Amino acid sequence: MKMDQAGRPADHGSCGPSVIDYSNDGLLDLFVAGYGQNLLYRNEGNGTFRNVAKELNLFSGDQATPSTWGDYDNDGRPDLYVSSYIVHSLNEHDKMYHNASDHFSEVIPWRMLHNGATHGIQWVDFDGNGALDLAMCNNNPGGHHYLWRNLLPPERAARSIQVMVLDKAGHATKPGAEVRIFSAGTRTCLGSRIMDTGGGYCSQNVMPVHFGLPSEDPVDVEVVSLTRTGRMTTRVAGVSPRQLSNRILEVKVP
Q1: Is the model more confident about 105 or about 90?
Q2: Which of 49, 20, 41, 16 is nearest to 200 (CA)?
Q3: What was the pLDDT predicted at 136?
Q4: What pLDDT does residue 49 have?
Q5: Rounded Cα gap, residues 120 and 67, in angstroms
Q6: What's the burial of 145, exposed, middle or buried (CB within 10 Å: 0-12/13-18/19+)?
């Protein structure tokens, strides 16, 4: 499938795509961080994609490079962090967008802006409290590796679950596995993610996929993985996040 725009200048390209179900409809969408403008291709569910970046306030791209999604406030909607290509040290800066369902708002803290742009970014719950933290490889003259701890209140941080997809030997060899969660006993989709075992630009991530939840109630987890005979679905029903160590569920698939 070719994705392009009529009239695109030759120097407007991208090296920072990321896959996400930003609308929690169960369909995986594609964000492309670009030089000149960003693109958000919404999966229409009929084999086609539609660029909705402009209507959702994600259109502006200033030499954007990596992009990564993480629900930092556990409201159930994945948020977006986009870093920028660094040309003149502190002249460029990253952008962080909060997902408000019908639009995105730029909300990056001033302390992050103070450090200039970055090249490697990954969301990770390093302290296991249920809230996503942010690891940032900064490429300004100082070249620091920042780790930003999420100060989400404990009761809000607890409203989350993480899913790690492994093979039968317990190894992370299932890139591209699709993970969806549902309200227990229903087909009400609460979110979709794709398992990553090394994606990123100047950064890699083999961490479990993270979901913010409306409550700490049990959920059903569904993993679609690729096998020699095609797509296979593995289901785990009635999972209680509060009973999981660090809220991480391991799902082993063939």
Answers
A1: 105
A2: 16
A3: 84
A4: 94
A5: 9
A6: exposed
- Give pLDDT, residue 85: 66
Listed residue (143, 165, 141) closest to 222, CA to CA: 165
Contact 197/160 with Cβ under 8 angstroms?
A: no
Distance separating alpha carbons of residues 199 and 250, to the nearest angstrom: 20
- What b/e string do you get for 9-28 counting C-beta neighbours within 10 Å, with b at 16 or more? eeeeebebbbbbbbbbebee
Cβ partners under 8 Å of residue 114, min gap 6: none
Residues 163 and 249: beta-carbon distance below 8 Å:
yes
Residues 205 and 36: their CA atoms lie apart, in Å, by 27
Query: Cα separation of 139 and 181, whole Å?
Result: 36
**Side-chain half-sphere of 54: how many Cα atoms within 13 Å?**
4
Question: Residues 178, 183, 186, 192: what is their CA dihedral angle, to the nearest 10 degrees?
Answer: -20
Give burial (CB, 10 Å; 0-12/13-18/19+) of 98.
middle
DSSP string for 186-242? S--EEEEEE--SS-SSS----PPEEEE-SSSS-EEEEEEEEETTEEEEEEEEEE-GG
Average pLDDT over residues 51-68: 82
Tokens 């409809």 label which residue? 25
Q: b/e string for 101-126 if b means 16 or more Cβ within 10 A?
A: eeebeeeeeeebeebbbbbbbbbebe
